[in-house]
Amino acid sequence: MSLVLRNILRRCPSAIITQSSLRFWSSNGQFPSHPMDTEEYENQPRKSITELPDELTERGTQPKFISGYETTKDEWEWVDNVLFKSAIPEPPDHPTPSGWFPPNPTLARQWPYFVDRDRFHSYALYVRILPVMLEYWLHEQHRYYLNIFRRRVEYDIYAQRTRRFSLLELISGDIWALDNDLKHYLTKRIELSHDKSKELPVLSQVDEIKRHILVDGEYEEWIADFLKEKGF
Amino acid sequence: MMIKSSSIAKILRYCSVFRSIQRFESSTTTSFPPESPASPITQQLPLIVSRQIEYPHIRYPPLQAWLETLGQKRDEKLGLVDLHPSIWQTSPRLDILYENIEWQKTYKKIDWAYTPPHHEYPNMRTKPWPQKGTGRARHKSRFGPQWKGGYKVNGPKGPTSFFYVLPKEKRIEGLCTALTVKLHQNDVHIVDSLDLPTHQPTYLQELAEDRFWGPSILFVDDTDIMPHNIMFATAKTEGFTLMPVYGLNVHSMIKHTTLVLTIRALNKIEKKLLHALHSYDTQKDQPAAPDEP
């Protein structure tokens, strides 16, 4: 339709349109003017691209060949195995081939602190890449930052990647004693390993309210060995 | 469960009546207390309610608390109750406690402030005075944002809700922290049942005063159908609240000075919390709790 005609239609009342011969391009005057909100349109069987065309589907028809089948309630355990269970099974009392070790209560009781396991019977030991606030001061401009997932994260130029932390949670008892022992253990380990990327001293942050210890650097395996030695 | 020698000494010291020791296994199927609630205690004393502790903690043994009674004014201890250390001996997370209380306050909040925008104002397109000539500022209409009584451009629009649901782990940790804090500040009392001999509120008030149970008490039972006497007494007393287990929340526990639990409530709370602490539910597959009606 041309622009001129469209403007004329906009300004003419619909009564004129219905009476005159311009009727064929206006709505047919019935309500609703568009099929969008009608019941039949809403309730029509929807079709997606992946569905088969009508001729090939068997809606309402009996299938040509039905194999023999039998409904039983035996051998439910095979189905039960596959279902999701919220209950976590108890682990064995011996070390497993995957490298998992059970806790040693007699050994764990002698220390003034205790590191509990999580509900899956593993150490509460995690790696963190923490966000950092943007600093605008000139003396901070030697720091390096990366933007990852819309967060500003500190970049370690010596390790040539983002700065990583190891987080140890679920601590009860004397946290500072655990912090002390952990740092001694890690410094000894670093001295023995002669690894240039690991630098001394080992920095750690103790949070007494959240009961966790954050160690600067990726010392996950060594902290796990430390916990194993203590029997946690 | 074996009885330690220290606990026997405690019992002998505090119990006025020493009879033969009776072992009382409590489980979900048996009813507790058994019978004759209204009359004074006729069971054999002391009762050591040896409860089955699920998911025993590696490092910490179960805590012990006195089992008291509301059936008589005299403060006689009936025995000892075991408490699970994962719930009653956590390292209290005060930040999570704060988050729980804030959540309880704000999730019901709806801000009804509404400032209509310019298209909801009367259509005064007339200029108040001509553009030039008068010494006044130039204006297009009487309802601009700079005018008194004019519309606001970016004002509050409509009811805004502050609804959110705190993660399940934080809510559980909040409850455990609150229970730990209450226990270690001597504000938790475990009672055999909420049966009183009289419906007079003075009985309960005097009982609470004698035992230094604080101005506000939260009585928790396992079901929401309570005995008539305690219902009447708490209704007439300011500060005494009755609550079923499903209504237990951090704000109420902290608001009331003392917390009085029945044995059945304690069983139910421990079962639910331990089940939640030692299982893994994704958001999709959250089955109904095993005990709920």
UniProtKB/TrEMBL annotation, chain A:
Cellular localization per UniProt: Mitochondrion
UniProt KW Ribosomal protein keyword: yes
UniProt keyword Transmembrane helix present: no
GO molecular function per UniProt: structural constituent of ribosome
A single GO cellular-component term on record: mitochondrial large ribosomal subunit
Protein name: Large ribosomal subunit protein mL49
Predominant cellular place of this UniProt entry's protein: mitochondrion
Annotated source species: Rotaria magnacalcarata
Pfam families: Img2
Family under the similarity heading: Belongs to the mitochondrion-specific ribosomal protein mL49 family.
Keywords, sorted A to Z: Mitochondrion, Ribonucleoprotein, Ribosomal protein
Record-linked InterPro entries: Ribosomal_mL49
GO biological process: translation
Automatic annotation (TrEMBL), chain B:
Keywords of this entry: Mitochondrion, Ribonucleoprotein, Ribosomal protein
UniProt-recorded Gene Ontology molecular function terms: structural constituent of ribosome
GO cellular component assignments: mitochondrial inner membrane; ribonucleoprotein complex; ribosome
Main location: mitochondrion
InterPro entries per UniProt: Ribosomal_uL4, Ribosomal_uL4-like, Ribosomal_uL4_dom_sf
Membrane spanning residue stretches: none
Any one Gene Ontology BP term: translation
Pfam families: Ribosomal_L4
Subcellular localization: Mitochondrion
SUPFAM superfamilies referenced in this protein's UniProt entry, alphabetically: Ribosomal protein L4 (SSF52166)
Family: Belongs to the universal ribosomal protein uL4 family.
Protein name per Swiss-Prot or TrEMBL: Large ribosomal subunit protein uL4m
Organism of origin: Rotaria magnacalcarata
Source species taxonomy: Eukaryota, Metazoa, Spiralia, Gnathifera, Rotifera
